[in-house]
Amino acid sequence: MKNILVLLGILILGRSLNAQIYPFKKDGLWGYIDTTGKEVIAPAFKIAGFFNEGFAYAQIGDAIGFIDITGKEVIKAKYPAAYSFYDGYASVLEDEDWGVINTQGEMVIEPKFAGPLVFHHGLAKIKLERGLFSTYGFINTKGDTAIYPSYEKLSDFSDGVCMASIDGRKYGYIDTKGEWVIQPTLDLGALFKINGEYDFSDKNFSNGYIAVSKDEKYGLMDKTGKIVLVHKFDFIGKYAEGLAPAKKDSLYGYIDIKGNWVIKPKYNGAEAFHNGLAAVSKGPYLEEKWGFVDHSGKVIIPLTIYENYDAYKPMEFFKGVVACYYEKDVFVYINREGRVIWKMD
User: Fold this and answer.
1) Do 48 and 4 reside in the same domain of the chain?
2) How far apart are alpha carbons 38 and 289 in whole angstroms?
3) The domain containing residue 161 runs over which residues?
4) 181, 205, 229 — which closes off a domain?
5) pTM value?
6) What is the per-residue pLDDT across 292-345, written as a single tens digit (0 to 9) for each?
7) Residue 259 lies inside a defined structural domain of this protein
């Protein structure tokens, strides 16, 4: 389980659809298959990540480097760990510090950071100090401080803005210059950590809107801070592709920006739409099964999937497949036709 999560961490870090081939394991080594399950790069790597921006990290020999979509090593394998390319940059580990390389493999930000740097809108979040207690800020692609690390809580940029909290209790949103576009008056509420860091994904703007709560009811807010949908739902998820999952009387469906039900509430769980499909679940508590619906609510993939590959992440299609457990302890890739194209032995 742990190895699978490490290898699939790139699912959250990248969203490009420029290379629809996927790592698969055979006889202890990783190679790549296409959307039909056909082998396109023979298994040769002890570790292999998903492709993003034309590159994938892979272990070649005893070190990590980057390959292209033919399987050729294009950035020399010399790192103990690496993250995928995003915005033209990838974070790599040297000794115990993280730095950043460009697509030519040149070190453009020297290793000195405690954690990997992932660029969004030309900015990467950093911690001022190591350890549990630190403040956060951003650097640019030259390694210069762009937004001084003065925030106790900070997300990544999404839709050009970033959730920020100075005191750890109230939050608002800043722009890429570090200026408040929505003042920090919203209640931060309960948070949970993934790999030692807080997860703020539910507070990222999507398609210009964000769900906010008041008196235990949810509505939608735009990037000016205006409430465009009053607080009347028990929950609202990420607004994407014109719809948002919403909860009423313990069941989930999907609403439009005006709060009209487009898909009536009848599911135990519901994720945001991504590439035309959204994951929904039905069944008794702790025994729900998942499947996928389209924008009209039509079931495209039957609700027979056991669970997501990571309980802390949304189930969604990425580069044409969804990585999940089809049955208990049976890890698979399913394509958009609902066919299992690979099953881990």
Assistant:
1) yes
2) 28
3) 118-205
4) 205
5) 0.87
6) 999 999 999 999 999 999 888 899 988 789 999 999 999 999 999 999 999 998
7) no
